[in-house]
Amino acid sequence: FLEEGKTMGLAPYGNESEIYAWLQQFVKTQDDGQYFIDDRFIQAMFHLSEGAKYYRWGNPDPTLIPLMSEINRILGSSRKKGEGLTQTHKNLAWAGQKILEDVVLGLAKRTQQLTGSENLCLAGGVALNSVANGKIVDSGMFKNIFIQPAAGDEGQALGKLFHRLHNQYKLGRFFHMKNAYLGPIYSDSLIQDALLRYSSDLIYNEYKSEELVRIAAKHISEQKIIGWYQGGSEIGPRALGHRSILADPRPKNMRDRINFQVKHREWFRPLAPSVLEERAAEYFDAKSPLPFMLVVCKVHPDKEKIIPAVIHVDGTARLQTVNENDNGLYYNLIQAFDHITGVPVVLNTSFNHAGEPIVETPDDAIKAFMRMNLDFLVIGNFIVKRK
């Protein structure tokens, strides 16, 4: 019942309607950036959805009944799993996203006025809303914006660690997070051991890095869909070229192929582009490097027809820029794809089936590859296909 990411993805299919003005009475924003949320509205919504059941609430307070009736009148009854999406659902997503942007932009403005700083750091689950982040960037309120890649609850561990190092142990600020590849690295011998366990179902060959990249880029250019498993896993919810599914962004139907045939998820879910950092401005309205895929930006109109599979319905994309220093192998792959096609962009989505976590171990990757409709798995120095 809490589907923030899906709501963000569905919002561009909606329109401004009476729902937006109606919601504003429950989420009130002020000129100075402060805001107020009517908790009665939250309670009523939970009782009308699976929320109350999930939290084992009893019957609603009688004073909530009129508000619950009003919600049903404006929004209709709660959508059941598997039911189609109506225009009302899309308009509700649009309104919810717009309300969030109003609040976030107000808080950013308040922060700037109170501090006078030209720098902004964002964390917390709402900082994963890449559309709202893009609105802050476009506002020009701040010169430098940093968004922690594990901005949700999981990132608290990192924050608490550094808080203790700085305050208890008096260590200096020695760490600059340039990439998110902080997970364990599995050696080629461990990967080969895992492949041997599934050798009755798989064919695989080992290659040196240059040949591996060349073959993988050729497969992608031929509209093959590959699992890409390299190096340490990413911290946070975004796959950034270490635990990714990669494909050609040029065929318009590639998004539907991946959403329907590979990941088996909703039709409206967008897929992201990874672009060579130095070439990003050719395709996107990107004002700075965006290594963590946490900001949505506009795609240049003349490029939309070139990479339609990674462009959302509103002409935007959730962008990842890739540089050679922080992610050399992935950079080389995109560069090889560019040499074949003239396009320095590949389609990137997380290596997982719908409802499952992103793969972590070599065994995870191989099992996922065998269950999903992928053409190849590139894992360590090995290229794998089914028998």
Explain how this protein is built.
The chain is an alpha+beta fold and 387 residues long. The protein has 14 helices and 14 strands. The chain has an eight-stranded mixed β-sheet, with helices on both faces. Helix 10 packs across helix 13. The longest helix is centred in the N-terminal third of the chain and has 29 residues. The two termini are 40 Å apart. The mean pLDDT is 94.
Short account of what is shown:
This protein is α+β, with helices and mostly antiparallel strands and 387 residues long.
- Specify Rg, calculated over alpha carbons: 23 Å
- The 3D shape can be described as globular
Q: How is the biggest beta sheet arranged?
A: 8 strands, mixed
**How far apart are the first and last residues' alpha carbons, in Å?**
40 Å
Strand order of the largest sheet: 5-14-13-6-7-12-8-11
Indicate the structural class. alpha+beta
Q: With helices defined by DSSP (H or I, 4 residues minimum), what is the helix count? A: 14
Order of helices and strands: HHEEHHHHEHEHHEHEEHEHEEEHEHEE
Mean pLDDT: 94
Summarize the SSE layout with pairings.
Blueprint lengths: L3 H7 L7 H6 L3 E3 L5 E3 L1 H10 L2 H4 L10 H11 L11 H29 L3 E4 L7 H10 L4 E4 L8 H12 L20 H10 L4 E5 L2 H13 L4 E4 L13 E5 L6 H9 L9 E5 L3 H4 L12 E3 L17 E3 L1 E3 L5 H14 L3 E6 L11 H10 L4 E4 L2 E5 L1
Parallel strand pairs: 3-4, 6-13, 8-11
Antiparallel strand pairs: 1-2, 5-14, 6-7, 7-12, 8-12, 9-10, 13-14
Helix pairs in contact: 3-5, 6-7, 10-13
